Structure formats: structure tokens, C-alpha cells
TrEMBL record:
CDD domains: GATase1_DJ-1 (cd03135). One of its GO terms (cellular component) is cytoplasm. Keywords: Repeat. Signal peptide: none annotated. It holds the Pfam family DJ-1_PfpI. It comes from the Eukaryota. The lineage of its organism: Eukaryota, Viridiplantae, Streptophyta, Embryophyta, Tracheophyta. GO terms for biological process: glyoxal metabolic process. Residues 50-214, 253-413 form the DJ-1/PfpI domain. This is DJ-1/PfpI domain-containing protein.
Amino acid sequence: MAALAIPLFNCVPFSVQAPRKVVTSPPAAATRASPLTTSPISSPLSSLKKKVLVPIGMGTEEMEAVILVDVLRRAGADVLMASVESELEVEASSGTKLVADVGIAECADEVFDLVALPGGMPGSVRLRDCEVLRRITVKQAEDQRLYGAICAAPAVALLPWGLHKRKQITCHPAFMDKLPSFRAVKSNIQVTGKLTTSRGPGTTFEFALSFVEQLFGGDVAEGVGQKLLVHTDDYQRKEEFNKVDWSFNQTPTVLVPVANGSEEMEVVMLVDILRRAKVNVVVASVEKSKQIIASQSTKIVADTNIADASKSIYDLIILPGGTAGVERLQKSRIVKKLLREQMEAGRIYGGICSSPVVLQKQGLLKDKIATAHPYAIAKLTGQVAEKVGVVIDGKVITSKGLGTVIDFSLAIIGKLFGHSRARSVAEGIVFEYPKS
Ligand SMILES: *[C@@H]1O[C@H](CO)[C@@H](O)[C@H](O)[C@H]1NC(C)=O
């Protein structure tokens, strides 16, 4: 999506705002479930799995697609990521290669509890032009089941399909003028009957959690939201210690090693946001194949494998989280060697979620203040900034993960290029840039 010169209204960060409308009333308060570890579904009536369709096409916004899939799977939904292209592998708008679970033709006769369209360009056009998807979504609306769209998709796909009629909708600020003005709503989330619309990558957690609430109830949505660390009121968003300059004369390069079990939202948010700032990002698989299967089963094709990637030097190396993925990254001798060289040469490195623990084990957090995911932070033996989402100490940057990754990525951009570029990237993804 192009950088925007359009003022943003009601641009409240997803992190401080609960999904607005409760459509499904929650079950008894006593049954507060823990959706990550146990089934969130407690009553026999709701034991049928909720089926969700998330279509993708060439140029779909990867954060939007992956956050929708990941958050809904965490809530217990059976989510199909379906390609509207002739191939399952699809290159998303910022260059991430995703592999869909099925082709859209296989979904033609299925009944879904929710059809949710990610945005991005030209992805929204590719979705609009897919006749099978149009029929599925129109039927979805006619049969009074949930559907929704985010970013460019409400204007580019729902409008020509006629699905906006008699409904208030929102979309990305760059596409607001395409909406009929008396229906356009400048809010992060708009729920009107069975239709939910939202604004952009930075509001996708809210968008996904709104669907969790509508499908599973408010308690489940709150539980999932807490696990995602999207309620940032409990801690400070960012803190920097021992400030040093991170700027470069040439385009900075960043290596993001990934493994089976890496957290897909963390990988995709980091890579997408850095690429929007014109950072040169290389995603390298430590597995035998370039394709990895991430923690919530999203298939991502890396740019290269770690052996080839290790022939170059990177200005930054950032490890994504995801418990199983972090364990596999830790076993990679090449990653270990690259990180050690990174530290010895005084270059920048960091990690998200539980990967700061790996950095520590390899002696890379000595005398550094760091943070990590609440589940992992007890394993950090050095100085810890427990109540901070993103911690920069000299040339080391760490973060709690999931809901803090946008702040983390913007913090890197701020350090590399200054606040104005970081702020313009934040505007483009419809995310409130942190003060200070
Ligand atoms: C990693 O995931 C890929 C699929 O993307 C699979 O082919 C491979 O077997 C997996 N590797 C391991 C060690 O599980």
C-alpha cells in the first residue's frame, strides 16, 4: 500500500481498544477458557468446529491474511486459507510467499461460519475478480452468516459485489473516498449485522478478535487477546538504554532466520513492516526445505536457506519467536555462528518472544537489559525490563512478541532511519505511532 498523505481519524491503537460490539453473548463467566492450551469450546452445542475461509491472491496484504488465520486458529476455529490463483503458492503484497491450504474451487460447496477477506493491492482486485469467491461471499451474506473485509477489500471487492448495501462500512483511509459517503465510517472496526469491516494491517488484531468474539463469545476473545499481548496498558511500549547510532549510508540489510514452528504473525509482521520502510530483508530457512510450516500451520516459503544466506553479512539479525521454532533455531550451528560474529563485529541483533532466551544461552545478552515473552522472561538471568514491550540496549533489541511486534518493527525503523519514516510506515498500516 502506498504511503499516505491522508489524515487519519479515530486512529486508536488496537492495543487499547476492545472489539466494539458484542454480538454473541458469552457463556457463564465461570467458563473462562484458555484457548491456547485447551479447547475454548465448553458446551456440547458449540462443539462443532467453526469453519472460516480466508482467501488470498497475488498481492494480498500478508499481515492481514496471516493474523486473521493465526488468531482464529488460536481461538479454536477450523480455518482454510484458500488461493484464488491457479497455484497454491502466492506472493503477498510485501513479498512474503504464502502457501494456501487449498484452491478456492475446493471451497465452492462448503458452508462457512465466517468468510473474511484480507486487503492489500492488487490482492483485493484478485479477490474481487474471482467468481467462485464472489459467489461464496454473496451466498454467505444472503444466508445471514458472518462475513467481513479489511483494508482495500471493503471498497475494492465488497462494493462491486453489492454487499455494502444498507450497511455502514469502513476501510483503509486511502480507499475511503471510494465508499458511498453516507455509509463510510471512520473507525477501526465497524460491525453492522453480519458484516464486519476494518482499516488496515495495524487494525487486524482488533478485526480478528472481533470475529473471535462474534463466533465464540467475549470471554474467549478476551482470553485470546491476553495471550496475544494486545492489551498493552500493563506495560510501557518501548524503552531505550545506552543509546547508540544505528544509521547506515547504504540500504540496511536484515536477516530473519525461520524454522518449522516459528510464529507466523511475528515473522510476517516484522518482514512486511521492515520492507515497507525499504529495508532489505532476507528470510532464511534453517530447515532442509525453503518452505517452513509455522506454529499455527501457516506455510511460508523463505527467500533462501540459511547456508546460502550465511555467505553475506547483515546489518541486523532478528530471531522470531514461537516455542518450537525457537528450539529449532537454537540448534542451527550456522545461526549460532552468524550471531556470534554479529556480536563480535559490533553489529545489531535481537529477538522476539522466547528467542531472547536463545541469545542469552549463546552469551549474547551479557550486560544487556532485555525483555521477552511473559512465559520466557523468568529464564532470563541478566537485567530484565519486565514491564516493557520493546527494549533497546545499545545494539541489542528484544521484545515480548505477538502484539508487540509492530512496535518492535517500528522501533527498528526509527533507529535506522529516524522517526519520520517510522511514523509514515505506521500511518500506512493504520497504527498509532508511539509517542516519544
Ligand atoms: C518442516 O516443514 C516442512 C513443510 O513445510 C516439511 O516438509 C519438513 O518435513 C519439516 N521438517 C521437520 C524436521 O519437521
